[in-house]
Amino acid sequence: MSDYFCFKCKKSVPLAAGERVGRRDTCPHCSSDMHVCLNCRHYERTAYNECREPQAERVLDKDRSNMCDYFSYRAGAAAGDKPKDQVKKLDELFK
Description:
Elements: H1 83-93
């Protein structure tokens, strides 16, 4: 089982590798939608339409469930650290 995290509560979500997330699936911890841009591996805040998938249609509400065909759940560490927090952590590391 891979490590998957909810964009909102940052808690681990139990998903088997390759398991698909449905449009109506919700986080078992905070009940937020799971099929959202903020949980997708294509989401990139600095990319055009905030998505690295060029064929994807624009989604305005990145934290609401959507019908995107290119959705793929982002695996790995909890995606929630803001860039400022990361810089602060680096500064503290080198003090």
